[in-house]
């Protein structure tokens, strides 16, 4: 048993070097070994990330399965999930870019199993990056924070209008009246038209259709 992080990383790297394909028994052993080294989880995850970047494309997926197995089975001490989430975007994108069609289909199945494990923002970031490489890759958009809760009452729309203006006063020059000896009083009526301006709020709903990655 390793006594420190350096020894643990070295032993785990040597064990990973023996993994050449998707061998379930070897992957299980690597998972158990990672559990034994949970005190050095950060170093173990770093070794896994380095191994994924180093090995040839046909072997990358097998190391990804080791990472996935640790993520789902070593849930106690060690904070493996936290450390894996920090490197999953980089390694996933690398394996996708270098992999063939079969590898990409396997990665899609793997990605689907991570819903509810990783944060939605992490998965969304992965989906966006992969979709930029392959437009057929579906993007699962996280639910916006300000989305109304189903069953809640909609807020009423407040209609605003301008207040009507007061009728304008008409001023008559008294000298003009005296000069023309006007004895009758002229009544001038001013009609004010009130214009009501109504503000209507239009909500445009955008529907995003994603294509199934088959």
Automatic annotation (TrEMBL):
Cited InterPro entries: CID_dom (IPR006569), ENTH_VHS (IPR008942), PCF11-like (IPR045154), Pcf11_CID (IPR047415)
Protein's name according to its UniProt entry: Bm5419, isoform g
PROSITE patterns reported for this sequence: CID
Alphabetical list of PANTHER family matching this protein: PRE-MRNA CLEAVAGE COMPLEX 2 PROTEIN PCF11 (PTHR15921:SF3), PRE-MRNA CLEAVAGE COMPLEX II (PTHR15921)
Domain of life the protein comes from: Eukaryota
Record-annotated CID domain positions: 4-134
Gene Ontology CC: cytoplasm; mRNA cleavage factor complex
One Pfam family of this chain: CID
GO molecular function per UniProt: mRNA binding; RNA polymerase II complex binding
Organism: Brugia malayi (Filarial nematode worm)
Gene behind this protein: Bm5419
Stretches that traverse the bilayer: none
Biological process terms in GO annotation: mRNA 3'-end processing; termination of RNA polymerase II transcription
Gene3D superfamilies the UniProt entry points to: 1.25.40.90
